Amino acid sequence: MSQVEDYCLGRAWQLRLRPADSRWLVGLAISHLATRPAMATLTQHRQQLTAVLSDAVHERYGNPVVVWILLYVVVPVIVRLIIEWWFQQREQ
User: Fold this and answer.
1) Of 6, 22, 78, nearest to 46 (Cα)?
2) Local structure of residue 54 (DSSP, 8 states)
């Protein structure tokens, strides 16, 4: 497990409910942030990251219950933790 996965799964019990999906979404989030300009605002990062992860969940899953859980429970937590981790890494 990577440092960012450890960071996210260690801080949110919601992510441990669906660990494989959480790791997949964390990986997508990190790859998305790596391609974004560093000068974007926090709000822009949050909106873009939420949109990318939501689109990916809709494309991958057909079960509406799984989609709902991921979109309304897991994705918001991942977005918050990834952005928190990302800005901490940039400060160091």
Assistant:
1) 78
2) H
